[in-house]
Structure formats: C-alpha cells, structure tokens
Amino acid sequence: MVSRLKQKVQAEVGKVVVGREAEVDLLLVSLLAKGHVLLEGVPGVSKTLLAKAFARCLGLDFRRVQFTPDMLPLDIVGGFVFNMQSREFQFRKGPVFTDILLADEVNRAPPKVQSALLEAMQERQVTVEGQTEMLPSHFMVIATQNPLEFQGVYPLPEGQLDRFLMKVVFAYPTKEVEARVLKRNLTELDVSDVGEVLGSGELDLAVKEVDKVVVSDEMLEYLSRLAEATREDNRLDLGVSPRGMVHLIQCARARAFLDERGYVTPDDIKALAPGVLAHRLRLDQKVVLQGTVSNVTAVLQEIVHRVKPPR
Amino acid sequence: MPDLLPLWSLVVVNVVVYAALVGGIMVARKAPAAKAFTMRAAFGFLEGSLVQAFPDLGSTFTWNEGLSKARKLRLDVNWGRVDDELHKYEAFRYGGSEEPGPGGYEVTRLAALLRRGRLGI
Q: Binning pLDDT at 50, 70 and 90, where does residue A67 land?
C-alpha cells in the first residue's frame, strides 16, 4: 500500500509551486485514473511549472510541446525517416512517447494534429504506416489552453473534449497566496529541488489498488440519477455521456484511494463532478441569449445539489 | 431553639430536593443519549437532527457536509470519536463491510445536543 501519497506529492510540488494543492490533487487523481487533463488558465499561473514538478516528483519522463498552427501530426506522433546507413525507413518516435506530455496551447494546433494527439490519448498507442507502437503505461497528456484567445485558435469540439478525463481551471491566486508566490519567487525556482516520492513499481501498485476500491450498487444508482438529471435539464443542450460517468467513477475511486479509503462516498462524487463533468456539458443557446445562465458549472452544481445521495 | 427545628429540617429538605434536581439536569446534559444504540439508528437520529438544526442544508447533503456545519457550533463533543464512528458507518454503508455492532454513542450525543440547541435548552 502506497501511504500518504497525496501529502507527499503536495509537499514536493509545493517546494516550487505555491497554493496549488487542489490542482495537484486533481492531477494525481487523473494519473491514477489513467486519464488526461485539460488545464485552462491565462498565461503565467504556473501551469507548466506545476506539470514539470508533478512529473519529477513521481519519477516520470516529461516532455513539453508548444502547439502552433503550422504543426503536422508527425511532429507529435513521429514518422518514418530514411536511414542512409541501413538504407531502410525507420520509425522515429515523436514527443508523444513519454510518460507526461505537456501539450501547451493545444487549441493553437490545426484539427488534424489535435485528432492525432487525441487518438493517441484514447488508444494509448500510435499507428503510422501500418506500424503500431505502444505508448508508456503511465502516458498522460496535460494539455493547456488559454480561455481568452479567440483568434488563430481551433477550439476543441465536444467529442474531443469528452476524451479528457478532467478539465482543471487555473484561476488567479488569492491575495494571500499571491503574496506567498511573490515571496517564493525572490529566490530562483529550480525544479530539481523536487524530490521523488515513489520507489520503483510503486506507481503501478497504486494504480492497481485504485481498481480495488469498491463502488456500491447504491452509489451506482446515485450516479445514474445524476447523469439522467443532466440529460433532462432543459438549460442544457448536451448532458453527460456514459463515458463521462465512467470517468467520474474512476476518478472517485482514485480520490478514495488517496484518502486511504476502500470505498467511494457521495463526497467524492460531489467534489469531482465539476472538474470531470462540466466540460462535457453544453448550455442551451436560448438560455444563454436570455442571459439567465452564463456558466455551465453553476448549472451542474445546482443539479448535483438537487440529486439526493445515499446516506 | 427547639422551635426552630421544623424550619431547619425544611431547609435541609429543600437543599436535598434542589441538589437532586440540579444533579439530574447535569447528568442528563452530560449523557443525553440512550446507551444501547446501533450505528444505523445513531446516524438516522443524526440525520434528523442535522435537518432540524440546519434547514439550509436541504435534503441532499452528505455526512461530511452536515458535520462540517455542526463542527462550527463548537459543541462539547469528541470529534475524533465522531469521525471514527463515521468511518465505520461509511465503510458499512458504501464499502460493503459488515454492519458494526452497538455503537454510535458520540454521534447520538452530537445529535441530541443539536436538537437541544434547536429547542434552546
């Protein structure tokens, strides 16, 4: 049993990133639930630094790719190059062959590149010219996007957003946290200060433990009622997909494991629903035009508040 | 002096009666709950108390949401024991563990204190 994993990761990442404990927890939940994360936030709120420190403290390989409009799929997944010595084509692996891939500004890449990346995320393998290459077992994409950019970007369609296990919104820090951030930055930040918290094979063990966390029938019934409520709410055009609910269950199990529980509680569901479900929902345009509702997360919170959990 | 004897005996009787009354109230305040309670009954009792004490909780609260409100009241409760009983109950309720035997005393005490607060006693 990997004990106090959450606290250990928070402590190590906290050496370089201040006041982002909640976001660290969500990244850890996503990793253990074998999913990918979309980070949304304006530039300069420690998204990249957090991802680097997170990978380092778990002893995982890390690569960063800055997405641009002129990219091609082979820039991500790799492709065949001619080897002059052996006089044959050889597959050269792209940056996707890593444990943690930071896809910076994913919405700047054209749809073909996004599709190639999302396919790799879904299948955990890459196929080029008929040759299939498996990705590392802990492969995880942390994609970022800036919510304020509208020009020269290709917004991810709903179907592709649904592939992200979670969307984590990076808000500006509070006044108190900002003061701590500024103080922390008076000395140079060095990611190499972050120590590894897991020994060899411990992450595999943790992932296996997550699969043993119990989800009772009553909890499953509660989740079904929650899904149905999102589909029946007339303020929403698009409710939660079955895949979304499967993702929510897996995240809840990971959260329970991190809290050293062998079972999922309604608190897990309520805590994770906004991050796991909100980006899969779409507001009805009539409601948006009427101005009665502007935020899909608020609608979701209200639905979660309405559905009675088992007690 | 012998004339004052009935008066003094009356004073003594009064002291005994009032002391018994005050003692009884204090004992009732200290241990307001029934001793033989099952965990399920204790949490059933707590659910009703939370709903009464915090009408804004609605009917869809989780145990932790309800208890976090109760914590703010700074009641004379052993919160460590409440948390322990909650974990046992949740393990039974959501984790498929066997139903715990008699218990839930601290949760019952908390529930009773919440009701008493509501009644202004």
A: very high
d(CA A206, CA A127): 29
pLDDT digits (tens, 9 = 90+) for A156-173: 887 778 889 999 998 888
> Coil, strand or helix: which one is A238?
strand
Q: Is B93 on the interface with A (CB under 8 A)?
A: yes
Cβ count within 10 A of residue A4 = 12
A77, two tokens: 């997944």
The amino acid sitting at A76 is I
How far, in Å, CA of A168 to CA of A160, rounded? 16
Whether residue B10 is predicted with pLDDT greater than 60 in this model: the reply is yes
Contact A311 B62 (CB under 8 A): yes
- Chain A residue with the nearest C-alpha to that of B65: A267
Provide CB contacts within 8 A for B72, sequence distance 6+.
none
- On whether any CB of chain A is under 8 Å from the CB of B47, the answer is yes
pLDDT at B60 over 50: yes
**CB-based burial, A180-203: b 16+ in 10 Å, e otherwise:** ebeeeeeeeeebeebeebbeeebb
Measured between CA atoms, the residue of chain A closest to residue B95 is A263
Please give the residue of chain B at the shortest CA–CA distance from A266: B62
- Structural domains of chain A sorted by starting position, each given as residue range(s) with its CATH number in brackets: 5-187 (3.40.50.300), 212-306 (1.10.8.80)
> Is A263 within 8 Å of B94 when comparing Cβ atoms?
yes
Mutate: best of B94, B97, B107, partner A, most A CBs <10 A: B94
The two tokens of residue A136 are 């590392």
Nearest to A270 among B47, B58, B62 (CB): B62
